Amino acid sequence: GLTGLLRIPPSVLKMHNKPDDAWSAFQGKVYNITPYLDFHPGGRRELLRVAGRDGTNLFAKTHAWVNVDFMLDECLVGFLVSEPSS
Ligand code: HEM
Prior knowledge:
By secondary structure, this protein is α/β, with parallel strands linked by helices. It has a single domain, classed as Flavocytochrome B2, Chain A, domain 1, CATH 3.10.120. The chain has 4 helices and 6 strands, in the order βαβββαβααβ. Strands 1, 2, 3, 4, 5 and 6 form a 6-stranded mixed beta sheet that branches. A hairpin with a 2-residue loop joins strand 2 and strand 3 (about 20-25). The radius of gyration is 12 Å and the shape is globular. It starts with 5 loop residues before the first strand and ends in a 6-residue tail after the last strand. The mean pLDDT is about 95. Protoporphyrin IX containing FE (HEM) binds near residues 36, 42, 47, 59 and 66.
């Protein structure tokens, strides 16, 4: 269910940009990609390019046919939202 999922603005996403703490957004959903790094067929290095960022465009360019939703279901952290204005 949606319980426990977070609303994550870009500034928070950006904090998770290290290999041992890497989050990335794909089509509005934020995933913890750290556990998947060693399993990515395209390699860690490629996947780390989107750590702390919205990876939607790079993902679409490389393999739009891959289903992230399905593959990383258990790594879902929450949803990308716009930066709160202050
Ligand atoms: C290959 C998954 C993100 C670059 C693949 C393949 C899968 C996969 C399943 C094999 C596809 C096939 O052979 O048809 C994922 C998942 C991602 C992700 C679940 C998100 C968490 C990315 C990103 C990039 C990237 C952001 C680029 C910055 C590549 C490349 C290959 C590849 C270059 C081709 C490797 C090769 O055939 O030698 N990825 N990927 N991937 N991925 Fe990703």
